[in-house]
Design goal:
19 helices; 664 residues; Arp2/3 complex 21 kDa subunit ARPC3; Heat Shock Protein 90; 12 strands; seven-stranded mixed β-sheet; single chain
Length: 664
């Protein structure tokens, strides 16, 4: 069933087409009652098909039929003319949509030229040919006048397309933006100049004998350089009205022997200046747009450069602080005049600062992996509440938090997740709350199962998030305003990691805050799952046994400190300073386990592993390296390593690696 809106659209188009057609034939049908040198309905029909599609085709066909049948000719000849007029516009729109970008053709110089060639000049030959042939067959067109009628028909249709279609489409599709007072004055001046120059050129009898029509191009060029295609199409239409009125009344530089010849020359002139000025205006807009994009890109590049400089300054600050603490602690320990309690405090300080440095580096590497889509999740069933409790216990111990600093409200809920990355998500969210919440204010962590979704909620009564920062709180290197003291510290990567890890798990995260000093809340949601079957109890681990361990490491300090630690744990330890020495020592000592650095002189760690595997040496190989990307882990596995540890490895990880080695 036809909609009322479509019926009304067809009725309105029918009325406009009929009125425009009757005006054209009544006032300008000099050479034949059915052929006019001024035929605006062609532009109306093309614009209607571009804007509303072929749903309004009935209005065009019926309008063309009614115009002709009420003017001259038979019903059959009028049907032929209506068919030609309709097919003309259908062909024009089809070609323009296929090759010129449809209604977007009027936004560019190339599109406007394609419109002129395909729609205005080519498709209009269909209407002229079918129309003239229909009149000839009906006996309404003398054979000696066929060529003149055809040319008048074609040029009238072409001029109507050029003058009306861009004007209608641009005003219909482009929103009218408010103009500044200066812009309003300039638009008004251009339109007045176009109208005034046209009136003087075409109506002043003193200028008729001079070929001064080219003067009309000057204000149009001014408009093309200052306005857009829509405003310029309006100026061209204004000039066309003035020039047509003058020429039809026998005034202006284009008056020739007959009124029809005068109008044909005028139409050619209007088409020429229109297809000169409109592409010029489109080029001006394109250039202006490109310039704005260039300026925006330059501003963005400048902002990125400033952000880089700020990040490097922050990175320098964040690296120097723990290094200063470690260096100072080492200097105090070097004095040797300390009680055991003081030594323990300094060692704890060194351990905490080393962990902080490792965390900064891990964050940078993780961001790089996530950006390059190289981070791989190793999913398994994870009980989210238990993971949160473990993280809180670790943070409480590591940071010396008082009991009750973090309020927990935990419900058992299982998710499929990478346990390491899930721990990273929880630690970052809770750590963020701790950094931005003064002592004495509440921090709450809740885990709930809501309609099949596991919800992790971290809420605090801290400094809050400014409304301008909230939409970008998950962007990298984005932090609230901090003074030079940088009390909260960090690189501004934690929340970026959280968001990307949550999304990598197929979850969502959102942040909310009522503003500065009003606290904040972060809510992460994951799809929950059923609890897995309980695993059988694991046998008790035997006490740690003495192993023969070889360390292949070119950094003297790293090698000697690791040796001291492993010997303190009761193991028999040997060392080598390069890859070749490491291979020889392993073959001679036949150790239980070999810790191998990757970046070794002479022979790298991968080659060390390959040669030892080729020698069929039954030994556990552990890569102990600073290369921590997934690709690095894969290369280590392919080279023959049993395990990959990232520096600095904790004592617990070193113990676990040693315990996995088979005793000899």
């Amino acid at each position: 069933m036809l909609s009322l809106k479509l019926v009304l659209a067809n009725a309105a188009l029918l009325a406009i087409y009929f009125v425009a057609g009757k005006l054209g034939l009544s006032y300008f049908g000099y050479i034949h009652p059915s052929a006019s040198a001024v035929w605006l309905p062609t532009g109306v029909a093309m614009a209607a098909f571009l804007l509303f599609g072929l749903r309004v085709l009935p209005a065009v066909f019926l309008g063309a039929f009614l115009v002709n049948v009420t003017t001259a000719g038979t019903v059959m000849s009028s049907l032929g003319v209506a068919l030609g007029n309709t097919l003309e516009s259908v062909l024009a729109v089809t070609l323009l949509q296929r090759y010129g970008g449809g209604r977007a053709a009027f936004d560019s110089a190339a599109g406007l030229l394609k419109f002129a060639g395909l729609a205005a000049f080519l498709s209009t030959t269909v209407s002229a040919t079918i129309g003239v042939e229909s009149l000839t067959l009906a006996g309404y067109a003398p054979e000696d006048a066929v060529a003149a009628i055809w040319f008048t028909w074609w040029l009238g249709d072409a001029a109507g397309a050029v003058l009306v279609t861009p004007l209608a489409v641009l005003w219909w599709t482009k929103p009218v933006r408010p103009l500044f007072p200066r812009e309003k004055r300039e638009v008004a001046l251009i339109l007045v100049a176009v109208g005034a120059v046209g009136a003087v050129t075409f109506f002043d009898p003193r200028l008729e004998e001079y070929p001064l029509a080219f003067l009309c191009l000057a204000p149009l060029v001014w408009g093309a350089l200052r306005l857009g295609p829509r405003e310029l199409a309006t100026a061209v239409a204004l000039l066309a009205v003035v020039a047509t009125a003058a020429t039809a009344t026998g005034n202006g530089p284009f008056v020739l022997a007959t009124p029809n010849e005068s109008l044909l020359v005028l139409q050619a002139f209007l088409v020429l200046i229109s297809m000169t000025a409109l592409p010029m205006a489109a080029l001006t807009v394109e250039r202006r747009t490109l310039l704005e994009r260039e300026q925006a890109a330059r501003a963005e590049a400048d902002a990125a450069s400033r952000a880089k400089d700020e990040f490097l300054a922050v990175l320098s600050h964040e690296l120097r602080n723990p290094l200063a603490a470690v260096s100072t602690a080492a200097a105090v320990l070097d004095t040797g005049n300390l009680e055991q309690v003081e030594v323990g405090k300094l060692v704890g300080s060194i351990r905490r600062q080393a962990q902080h440095l490792a965390r900064l580096i891990d964050d940078l590497l993780d961001i790089g992996g996530l950006t390059a889509n190289k981070l791989v999740l190793r999913k398994e069933p994870v009980e989210l509440a238990a993971a949160v409790r473990r993280c809180v216990d670790v943070l409480t111990t590591a940071r010396g938090l008082t009991a009750g600093r973090i309020e927990l409200e935990l419900e058992p809920v299982w998710v499929d997740a990478d346990p390491v990355r899930m721990t990273q998500i929880v630690e970052n969210l809770i750590g963020n709350a701790l950094k931005h919440t003064p002592l004495g204010r509440r921090i709450g962590v809740a885990v709930r199962d809501i309609a099949g979704m596991a919800e992790l909620r971290v809420e605090d009564e801290g400094f809050g998030i400014d409304a301008t920062l909230l939409p970008r709180v998950f962007d990298p290197f984005r932090q609230g305003e901090q003074g030079l003291e940088r009390g909260t510290g960090g690189l501004g990567l934690g929340l970026t990691l959280v968001r990307r890890l949550v999304e990598l798990h197929g979850g969502t995260i959102e942040a909310a805050s009522d503003g500065a000093d009003r606290g904040s809340v972060f809510i992460a949601r994951f799809r929950s799952r059923l609890a897995p079957m309980e695993a059988p109890p694991q046998p008790a681990q035997p006490p740690e046994a003495r192993r023969r361990v070889l360390i292949v490491e070119d950094n003297v300090d790293a090698r000697e400190s690791l040796r001291a630690l492993l010997e303190a744990l009761g193991h028999e330890v040997y060392e080598a300073g390069d890859g070749e020495a490491g291979i020889q020592a392993a073959l001679e000592l036949n150790p239980d386990l070999v810790f191998v650095d990757i970046g070794l002189p002479l022979v790298d760690g991968y080659e060390v592993a390959r040669r030892l595997r080729a020698a069929n040496l039954a030994v556990r190989l552990v890569a102990l390296t600073g290369y921590g990307r997934d690709d690095d882990r894969k290369r280590a596995q392919e080279a023959g390593f049993d395990e990959h540890l990232l520096k600095p490895a904790t004592t617990e990880r070193l113990r676990a690696a040693i315990d996995a080695a088979t005793l000899r």
